[in-house]
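Design review, sub-item: ligand-bound model
Attendees: FS, YL, KQ
YL presented the inputs for the fe (ii) ion complex:
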Amino acid sequence: MISVSDLLMAMSIGMDAVEKDFFGAMPYHSKRVAAYSVEIGKILGLTDARLYSMAGSALLHDNALTEYIVSETDLDATPWALKTHCVKGQKNAENFPWPYPITGFVQYHHEFADGTGPFGLKENEYPLEAAIICIADRVDVLHGMYKGDEKTMKEIKRGIKEHTGSYYSTKVASAALEALTLPLLESMKDEKISQTLRDRMPRFNMELSDRQRINVSKAAAHIIDYKSHFTETHSVQIADKAWYMSGAYGYDRDMRIRIFTAAAFHDIGKLFIPTSILEKPGRLTEDEFSIIKTHAAKTWNLLHQVGGMEQVALWAANHHEKLDGSGYPFGRSAKELDFIDRLLACLDIYQAVREPRPYHEGRTHKDTMDIMYSMSGKGFIDEGIVRDLDRELVKFEGGVTPTVLDNV
Ligand SMILES: [Fe+2]
Ligand SMILES: [Fe+2]
Ligand SMILES: [Fe+2]
Ligand SMILES: [Fe+2]
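KQ shared the predicted structure:
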């Protein structure tokens, strides 16, 4: 059973990296927003179920930032673009199980009490939880709660008072002022925040249904893919192909969902790689290439901490390993790489070679297979799997396999 709160925390770290890449937000931003939201919510008398659902939403509040950036560059920073990450972020977050419905929690995290936010709603027209996440988010972005000192506390208090009655309702602002103590702020420092959140966030043992396992994985793949224009469907496509191939190999449903999950999450470490490198046209320098290569280790770092995802984390992290030991991040060789490791490595290459990248056009199935046979010939990847992919994936026009069906 996957620990949902672990997964929320792991995903929040990846999303913070995106927020840092684009807006200079600090690491653990989402965790601090979650921890402060919980303290404000307690003062306002929220039940544990509401506190948990709000903290989880805070961890995911900017999950659709990657899509927002894409739409922003397409459409210039319009209110429409700002709304996009709110609407899509809400939709993605709803794929998780919650003890209290999170309707509007993510969608309205940029609304202001005076109606000047992107949807123009006024206080009382959007959920209290969204208003709490909003104030915690702004406080951290503007003042950096990670500093954890008295000077920062004074600045935050001044900032909140300044916008009470306009951005923040009097009720939320006064709870935020009351919640903000020096010990709380000190517990927000980078080295303490993870433990702080674990201590303060109420616990719920939420179990993911099969459908939720698929949907959460799909949502994660989507978030990861949008990090770069060039990989807009990369993880989603690999996950679908992993689902298809695992069916062809006769695995049972539980195993197929686990393989699908590993495929969906395999490049989560790419959230840490600057877009300027991912999208660089032309050849990468040696330094840039070694930065890109760190994504596989980062995938491992994030996922192996999630209770119940240990095996999935391994499969995901091993997708750039080679049978002769020349791959990364661990340099594992044939005897340490199981069948699923090998399958995902092959699917990753197949997909990457077929889809257009800054440095090459998309290729046909036949050209892709020529490259893959040459790689298996050199002892890098599993020859049997390469043959299976050749036989199975040739059936699909444009290399697009059927998406995982609704009746899972
Ligand atoms: Fe946001
Ligand atoms: Fe934020
Ligand atoms: Fe990768
Ligand atoms: Fe990949």
